[in-house]
Queue: 4 jobs
Job 1
Amino acid sequence: MEKSHMEKSHIGFGLGIRLAAWRTAWTPRGRRLKISGTAFLVGGFCIGVGVLPLGACSDQDTASLPPPVQPGEALPYRIGPSDTLSVFVYGAPDLSVHGIPVRPDGRIAIPLVPSIVAAGKTPRELGKDIAHKLLKFVRDPNVTVIVDSFHGMMGSEIRVIGGGAKPVAVPYVDHITLLDVMTEIGGLPKFAAANDAYVIRRSAKGDVKIPVRLGALVNRGDLSQDIFLMPGDVLVIPQTMF
């Protein structure tokens, strides 16, 4: 008599370990599957039929791995003097404005809010502060702030020194990476010991030195070296004699 769908054997190659248990797995779309039956785990993969869909075992093994470690984590952009902003108040177009310059004192003016500090805040923080000010005039205001042009706070630039070239300061923008900076400065300096470069990152606990292989990034497209940069980072490129 033909065996039922649940009783069909799983196929394994080589010497495997037989496992039998109810398990719970998640599909890439977030749907939960109940997995039962017997499988052979062989050389890091398994092939099976029955309730367990083909390839589900490998999906489960992959899901158990830790996520890739990012060499750095981007910080949110903080508004600086001379930045240009747009403020959108949903449902109140008369209060929405575009191209507002941040004054040297770090403040901006919009309808019904004649003066509010913008410098040093993230766009999200400024949006919340403006919404709080508008509560007197608008019911449940929803405010979005967009930075149209970036200059940043003093000291937030990414500085590039060494390699026999003139020091360069690149304005920090949200999610800027090492490759963005190299593109901005026109590539590697002529006398750069590119793979000996490093980033100096300042923190309350002291400076941190992060080695980066610029040659691998720029010349071979090794994106594992394309780390996120933070405000005030200093990229040091040692100089070579050859």
Note: The two ends are 79 Å apart (CA to CA).
Job 2
Amino acid sequence: MHLIDNLQYANWSEKIFKQMREGGVDAVHVTIAYHEMFREAVANIKQWNRWFERYPDLIFHGTTGEDVRRAKCEGKTAIFFGFQNPSPIEDDIGLIEICYMLGVRFMQLTYNNQSLLATGCYEEEDSGVTRMGKQVIKEMNRVGMIIDMSHSSERSTLDAIEISQRPIAITHANPYFWHPAKRNKSDAILHALGQSGGILGFSLYPHHLKNKSDCSLESFCEMIARTADLMGIDNIGIGSDLCQDQPDSIVEWMRVGRWTKDMDYGEGSAKNAGFPAMPSWFKDNRHFDAIAKGLEKKGFLQKEISAVMGENWLRFYDENFGHKHLKDF
């Protein structure tokens, strides 16, 4: 079994890289941009290059599905780059291919707010994917960069699924039927995502869990089982949204960026604006086995557990990274 976590934004350190190895994590999709513009995102890539140089026995830069297999064989973790906002491409569609050449494999069309490309999940008016967004989807399809709609609105997400000629991903969110957070996804989205061959990565970020930090493993696995019934076992995986060791000030930066002077508390509260405590059964990269054991207890077959824990993401990488000739819309 290949173990893949398709979203983390930790405060990276040797300690965390070692925990990835202790947990047998073969690949992690890491966020290298929230609100950064192109040059700032490049600076973040430079920092990752230093970590790859400093910790070659623990991590390396992954760009293909084969890199996940290599990581497992060599006892390392392949690191895949992604953007949680389209800020790094600014207003220049040509930067998409440049970012792909730099190793970026995922990009969200929005991060909560309206962007040049689509509507975010916190906007009152949902106008869907924009004119530029349609062209960006086409270009992302061409170069093999995955469209991520984790922080997008209902209409934008459904638009992206319909417009894209390649399957999209929702790398870190949960079903709305289980917990009605703004960023969790409706049955309509989940059904359309599954029908189109896309993948949902289940989030462990407490604001997106039923009972938040007190969410039980049994409840989480029941949610996975119900979602598998809705979408199909081949269309689900893990995207933990782990923000390990980040200071609370990072939450403010994530929510506020440079777009407002006021604090946006998101789905937290004014009295508790920092990072919530993780569930007791999942604290860091060493605890993915708890999910696998929970699924086994829930009655999942070993093949199904392997699919959820990484094999589905690996197939998705194999099929969707890389340039492809596409017909015009």
Note: The chain has one domain: 4-320.
Job 3
Amino acid sequence: MLRILFGLALLCATPAVAQSTLIGSYVWQVDDPLFGGFSGIEVTEDGQGFIALGDRGTFAVGRFARTNGMITGITLDDLRLLSGADGLPLPRLESDSEGLAIGVDGSLYVSFESTSGVRRFSGADQPAGPLLETPAFAQLQKNASLEALAIAPDGTLFTMPERSGSAMRDFPVFRLKDGVWDQPFTIPRTGPFLVSGADIGPDGKLYTLERDFVGVGFRSRVRRFALDGSGEEVLLETGILTHDNLEGISVWQDVQGLRMTLISDDNFRGFQRTEFVEYRLTE
């Protein structure tokens, strides 16, 4: 009887599994020393344009060419360094930019890992605002802090660290609402996956992109939650070497439903690649 009850408890604790279908992938190459290391992506509502964030303090603005909905080419319109308040590029020690979110007014928000805070840019060519931080960030692990950033339609920001501080500790989700930081919920830390990106989709749910490095390559997972951390669903879990080091996620909607656009961080290494990957959610 106890064994039966334990089995039922495990069944109830298992997150729901939704379906995702690979649409296609596209390897992007540009001959520029600033190009690479992409850790964040936001796609425009029509699916034709994007802004990507590099983890050495860069914005890349571009447009997709599509055939039957699949990416078949990319036009790069702008590639530039993030500017500080003085209009000069952010110092190297302050430019470890990891998470990207865009508000309804077009403001760009970037989370930083080294300085553990968030900055607002009114445009890709505009200087940074002040660092938005809270004392709670001081407890985050060095080089593993604010990896992911998402924004709700009302402007509320959600950010989370790459690591939780312990394999047995859930990932904290920090919220900036009406100028006040709090930590309203956590998301479960299950398996070896670490947080690499986040977005809030048109359905109002929080999507987390996670990755696991296994010696010869990466595997990826995407989960979805309500904005109180409940209702966990596993949308995608890949095998090793299915894709490169996926770190950025943008969830948007076309006439067929929800779509995820993911981008990889090549770590500025020749044996890795900058890859756009798209999946259709077919729950």
Note: The chain has one domain: 16-281.
Job 4
Amino acid sequence: MASIDELQRSLSRPAPIYVCVGDEALLVREAVEVVRTAVLAGGLAAFNHAVLSGGEEGAAGVAEACRQVPVMADRRLVELRQVQDANAATLDALLEYAQAPVSSTVLLVTGIKMPAPSGGQDRGLRFVNQVKKVGQVFKFDGEGLDPGVFARARARTWNATVDTAAVRALLELGGEDYDTLAGNVERCAAFVGEGGVVTAAVVQEVCASTAEADVWGLTDAIVAGDADAALASLHHLLEDGEAPHRLMANIAWQLRQVLLVQDAFRRQIPEREAGVRMPPAKLRAVRSMIERRPASPSAMLEALAVAARRMNSSRAGDRRVIEAFVMGLVVRS
């Protein structure tokens, strides 16, 4: 199975075409972000980024989109998503383009898999074989992916480590669903902090003991800018025995989900594709809130960083720190 690291290395000199498909949606999403960041860095992304969907009627115009000239940049990026839904005309257009791709464009084709053969022709396979001659093909499937290796790699991005017992606890909690596993590792890493070690006890404390719905009530109030409701929710959680450190980790994870919903809304992409993991009813509520009051990513991240430092050094006590953190977010988010 392909790795994100391999993809990252290949982008030191971007190929004209990348195919990133697989049944692990999390890894495909991350692959898209890696390609997007590398190709559009330093340019005017708004003018050099086109997105088409394989199921759309105009998807066969992908070649025309690829042949447009970049605007004040070295390259433009054309994404064709959900290639599994592409019809014969779109696949024919892809195959024809792959025989003579434009050097100033990177075409990124993503989805679960290439379409099945139709009309006695396997156009998807022919396209992939042609791409291998001029570009890169990456397959991100769950088969062959070790969840323990994945969990440890995920924690390293947060400068934390996960011990063996914690890996077992994470798998018992969420199985081998990599979206869930990634979210739980991120919560635990935020809890232990930079250089910390995630143990089975940490997994139990962070992932299993906090009532997620109750914490969402606090997060909702923060995003809505309702100081009274935020403090009431916070005090309710603290009086019920929730530890400030644990609440910080869960609030951080939920705020990240809010920012992902906002990013998906602004880029007009499906929330699942952006990495959003929340119940449908909650998703609808968050959408409504950010439409009324957009969140500020910089303010949220700054508040989290400041609170994390104070939680480990303040003489005022953890409760005072998290109260100041929540109120600061209500004002600045």
Note: The two ends are 40 Å apart (CA to CA).
